[in-house]
Specification:
By secondary structure, the protein is α/β, with parallel strands linked by helices. It has a single domain, classed as Alpha-Beta Barrel (TIM Barrel). The chain is 41% helix and 19% strand. Strands 7-6-5-4-3-2-1-8 form an 8-stranded parallel beta sheet. The longest helix has 19 residues. It is globular. Bound molecules: pyridoxal-5'-phosphate.
């Protein structure tokens, strides 16, 4: 397995035209492949596992922007808080409070996205609409100084039914628009992966998280 340079360069060109940020999802991939992409100028990488991301961040160039996109346990926040660029998977008040607390200790303001459950599948993490609204209210009332909520992240159902995928993305976009009319600090809508990023962009995504298209299938 190696980086598919051609696919990457083509994708990058396509996304630049659209003004969409590309997060290269490098979970399970070795240092060398990340470096290969780095040497093509890429800086935004996404990881799912705390220990793996921390290890990679230690060994790889310091100007890489690490995005955490997996399920984050509160007891692991401290392992990434000092360097993470964007935590895309916040799904509870408890987690938000912990990020705020740990960020305060290292004197940082950490950017976060709220993960919204848009898929009809049971297995995906994330907040439903009411929980999200509630969480945003709590965030305001608690005056957390060391986290910044920058937007939303969502994953569509794992299905070949692209109409269903599109509906899910449209629901998330609608929710995003509703929130942004009240809060201009929300700017990022992270949706779309290898199989559905084109649909996601058509439906208003401005950040995609793409792994297998760039790095090949994961084991
Ligand atoms: C693995 C993963 C991706 C990338 O998936 P691909 O299908 O390989 O592009 C995107 N987002 C999240 C949250 C992931 O866990």
């Amino acid at each position: 397995m190696a980086v598919n340079r051609e696919a990457y360069l083509q994708l990058k060109k396509e996304l630049d035209v659209e003004g969409v940020t590309l997060v290269a999802v490098s979970k399970t991939k070795p240092f060398e492949e990340i470096l290969e992409l780095y040497n093509l100028g890429h800086r935004d990488f996404g990881e799912n596992y705390v220990q793996e991301m921390a290890e990679k961040a230690k060994q790889l160039p310091q100007d890489i922007r690490w995005h955490f996109i997996g399920h984050l346990q509160t007891n692991k926040v401290k392992l990434i808080v000092s360097f993470v660029q964007l935590i895309q998977s916040v799904d509870s008040l408890k987690l938000l409070l912990e990020i705020n607390k740990q960020a305060q200790k290292v004197n940082r303001v950490v950017d976060c996205l709220m993960q919204v459950h848009i898929a009809q599948e049971e297995t995906k993490f994330g907040l439903d609409e009411n929980e999200l609204i509630e969480l945003m209210k709590e965030f305001e009332s608690k005056g957390m100084q060391n986290v910044r909520i920058c937007g939303l992240m969502g994953m569509a159902s794992f299905t070949d039914d692209m109409n269903k995928v599109r509906k899910e993305f449209q629901n998330l976009k609608r929710l995003f628009d509703r929130l942004t009319t009240h809060d201009s600090r929300l700017t990022t809508l992270s949706m779309g992966m290898t199989s559905d990023y084109r649909i996601a962009i058509e439906d208003g995504s401005n950040m995609v998280r793409i792994g297998s298209l760039i790095f090949g299938e994961r084991n």
